[in-house]
Amino acid sequence: MRLTAEQLARFDRDGYLFFPSLFTPEEVKVLTDEVPRLYAVRRPENVREKGSDAVRTNFAAHLYSEPFARLARHPRMIDPVVQVFDEAVYMHQFKINGKMAFDGDVWQWHQDYGTWVNDDLMPEARAMNVAIFLDEVNEFNGPLMFIPGSHKQGVIPAGHDTSTTSYPLWTIDKDTIAQLVAQGGIVAPKGPAGSMILFHGCLVHASTSNLSPWNRVSVYLSLCAVSNHIRRFKRPEYIAHRDFTPIATLPDDCLLRPYPVDLPWKDGTPESAYETGKAAA
Amino acid sequence: MRLTAEQLARFDRDGYLFFPSLFTPEEVKVLTDEVPRLYAVRRPENVREKGSDAVRTNFAAHLYSEPFARLARHPRMIDPVVQVFDEAVYMHQFKINGKMAFDGDVWQWHQDYGTWVNDDLMPEARAMNVAIFLDEVNEFNGPLMFIPGSHKQGVIPAGHDTSTTSYPLWTIDKDTIAQLVAQGGIVAPKGPAGSMILFHGCLVHASTSNLSPWNRVSVYLSLCAVSNHIRRFKRPEYIAHRDFTPIATLPDDCLLRPYPVDLPWKDGTPESAYETGKAAA
């Protein structure tokens, strides 16, 4: 899968690209069948919603779940990102966000690279966000909202919001959002399960609460150019990974056939993955 | 303005009717120009959002604001409701809901008639909800969501939610919502400022938070058939009105010309309007 010149120009201008139905229902089912088991586990990798037992985000499943380990090596996702950066990539972060029916709470306006540079000392915004829909995303179940073109601002000053939801986030003030929206508007790509979005690490995004009876589970992962690896291990390893090995892709049918994958955390997360405040090796 | 047989059949089936751009921008401006003054006042009629100073809902402006007093007598709104009930109507409740940019919080799934019958002892669901958009309503600023056909269920058991937001509400449980949505889906009428929705007192509705930089101020009022007036004054009068006088409409240009209107609370809300727990006279 090669991005066209038109797609590359659009990514540069808008800060995102949307690929509806990139994965088939059969491929998605392999992933969604695994989610209840992952969400049921009581481990720090499962962050739950404020005032509810619903999972808000699950971290690092690609290290202990075979279907997600194969997704993490999928050429339909990896190849275009390698093309954009013209360099091999490693997995910086891997999340399965719940945004569950009725309980899914808001994510305030933020940029991801702001956190990566401040907390992880990632040198440049050469890491790509990838969203893969495991459920249909519609106007009612809290779709991801983007401000097109906002990635051109680079890192925008942000304040640490530790009260709105159960997951602390560096969020952007209202005046700045109003200005950015006046220029770029808001878009919310919607589509069937199996759709994928690539979006720039500096693209400002948010999502509202999900009051609908439809789950909106999505994989959100970040692929970082290998030379741009993080320089500080301030956050736990299950959130910001420390293994900078270039991802080797599997064949295109890897979600449907049992290609072998390493599952280093299959028998439990190593204690070291919970350590914080370390300098990079 | 007469509803057609087709519109009446649609209202019966779906529980709502949508009239895009029923009021002109010039008419809407008369109303929106008045809102900041109303929202700035510190009186119990202004309920503010949890954890923010933004107004969530303002009550009874038709009794102390001239533009809204004229809106409350507008034939484009009153006549179709009188037609549906085949009877004169009085103003049961009058709100200007903020759903302000960034701060507007959710309204969980509920029916209005559930409150009217339980708290106010309103005999039947012969009261119509009216929503008039004072701002454009789009997919990003927390549009009202309906479950079409849900009004056919009559009063659905509900629990009193006093924690989610700053305004207590009788809300419906998740399993029931999931069943109703499986039958009727969800719709969210969107359109320019000046649009109007009529919806049945038993129609199940909700709205999400507004993370956008666009206010979504709407007038929500309830017109009750006069013979169906409430039988108990449990809630304060500024929330559930006790004056059952039939509304006499003004001419169609009443928002643009200074027809005289009574403003009984112009110099302050009477103490009696804050009293609760009274039996009807």
The largest β sheet of chain A comes out as: 7 strands, antiparallel
Gyration radius of chain A, rounded: 17 Å
- First-residue to last-residue Cα separation of chain A: 35 Å
The poorly predicted ranges of chain A are: none
Main interface pair? A-B, 24 and 24 residues
Mean pLDDT of chain A: 94
Q: How many H/I helical runs of chain A? A: 7
Q: Within the largest sheet of chain A, what's the order of strands?
A: 1-10-6-12-4-3-2
Number of strands of chain A: 14
Judged by helices, strands and strand pairing, the structural class of chain A is alpha+beta
Q: What proportion of the residues of chain A is helical, as a percent range?
A: 10-25%
Could you give the order of the helices and strands of chain A? HEHHEEHHEEHEEEEHEEEEE
**Multimerization status:** homodimer
Overall shape of chain A: globular
* Content of β-strand of chain A: 15-25%
